[in-house]
Amino acid sequence: MIGKPAKTGRSLRNVLLLGILTLSACASDTSVLVAEPDAFSKPAAREVISTAFDFITERYIDVIAPEDFAPEGIRGLGAIDPELTIEAGPDVIALKIGGNVIERFPLPRNGDTAAWTELMVNVSVAARSKSNELKVASPEKIYEAIFDGILSHLDIYSRYAGIKEATKNREKRDGFGGIGIRYKIVGQYPKVTFVMPGTPALRVGLRVNDTIISIDGIPTTGLLREAVGDTLHGAVKSHARLQIRRPGENDSRTYDIERALIFPPTISFAVQNDIVYLKISSFNQRTARDVLEKMNKARQKIDANLKGVILDLRGNPGGLLKQSIRVADLFLAQGKISQTGGRHPDSVQYYEAGGRDIANGKPIVVLLDGMSASAAEVTAAALQDRGRAIIVGTSSFGKGTVQTVLRLPNDGEMTLTWSRLMAPSGYIIHELGVFPTVCTAGAIGDGATLFENIPAQRIRTSAVLEAWHRIGFEEKKARQKLRSFCPPERRKKATDTKIARRLIENKALYTRMLNLTASSAAALE
To answer: What is the pLDDT of residues 117-133, one digit of tens each?
Structure first.
């Protein structure tokens, strides 16, 4: 799975996976699921911690031994009780509360994951017996403290999600049982603000501005938005009975709705002047399918008059890697799309185009900005390197790592960085991003002046693109300097879209700029 970007530094942990996003090639392992116990159970804790420790030692992108990360998990318990500290000696580890040693434990041998797991469990039990804060903490709170302590010292994209957050993450990636509406609380009741196409809610006749009075006989008055969502969600094919008040009607209506698998929509679609505009907000299990459906709809509407496609990935934080690969594949007839490489054999993957182009060779312009990350960068880099699209906007975020997701026995999940992404031409996206063919950093207005100056910028753009494709991953300062030629910005302005349209309509200029991009990438193949 590919996660989302943040603005800077550690704040990224607060932004990742909000729209999620958290890439990604999302490889999920599933263990036996058990309900969270009421009290801290040593056997249950051993199972959860052992599963997580094995996952880290086997799959993390860099070689890491249990003795390197397990002590950070012990220190993580201090997030619950700040008086709790550890002191590690050559042979023992001392657990302290308020400076006083409460117990000593022999240090396991280096590399002995099972022994370090047992130490983590025993320390947790001992700490709970002496710390009031830990004694009243739920098992979930303890797991969160341990795994946050460990993962925060690995990298900013590896993270732990407890049961509640993990459930929401899975819903965003894989869909959920629901009826297919969006709503907000107005006054004391939830009011429908959007009815998703092709969903049970639309089929039974729910409308925008309908007020939900009750769900399954339970009044909704005063319920928080989250509580309404929990009630509307349920197993696929189960039923929800909604009592609705519709504007202009005196009597309420009742609907019996069978829940279906719902995927949050990620595509916005429009056709203007025979140009298709596709905005992709993130990548979930339905994204590529929805892009194909929208393009088929557009072709039925304008047929041979199609001038081109604008693929807007601005603000797209990522999502499922395989979906971004499939979106790129929809517009490519052949050639490499991307590859990933890490330490674990399963992290090494090569992706090739499947031999179709649903735009039939028509011009494509991809819009990027500084918040376009991970899976969005994969799609953009593939289309640019293969000479299939011009990029308009700013340098992208530069999140070029892939996270794999493990579902833990407590039904939480651990997201772990396990590979890096490479563009078709071979450059590593991480901490570099994708460079636009036409830079709009700082541009305002209708972009007329910038558009007129595009030909004059070709020499500099060519030089930057060539350096971009040749720069080594270890050349940190040089990579940052390259990014400064078109610094990443958050672009919401219509300027970029206007420039994209003018490029599509100016076939000669489009072709020149496309060849500029393709030749820079082809030189390295």
So the answer is: 999 999 999 999 999 99
User: Looking at residue 168, what is its pLDDT?
Assistant: 84
Give the Å distances, CA to CA, from 353 to 44, 192, 246: 45, 41, 49
Q: What is the predicted pLDDT for the residue at 16?
A: 30
Identify the sign of the CA torsion 68, 71, 75, 77.
positive
CA–CA gap between residue 395 and residue 303 (Å, rounded): 34
* Residues forming the active site: 374, 385, 399
Q: How confident is the model at residue 66, as a pLDDT?
A: 96
> From CA 199, how far away is CA 210, in angstroms rounded?
16
Domains delineated in the chain: 9-172 (no CATH), 176-262 (2.30.42.10), 267-336+349-397+430-520 (3.90.226.10)
Is 447 strand, coil or helix? coil
| Structure tokens, 40 | 């801290």
DSSP state of 348: -
pLDDT of residue 283 exceeding 50, the answer is yes
365 CB-contact burial (10 Å; exposed 0-12 / middle 13-18 / buried 19+): buried
Q: How far apart are CA 378 and CA 21, in angstroms?
A: 14
Whether the Cβ atoms of residue 479 and residue 432 lie closer than 8 Å to each other: yes
What is the pTM for the complete model shown?
Answer: 0.81
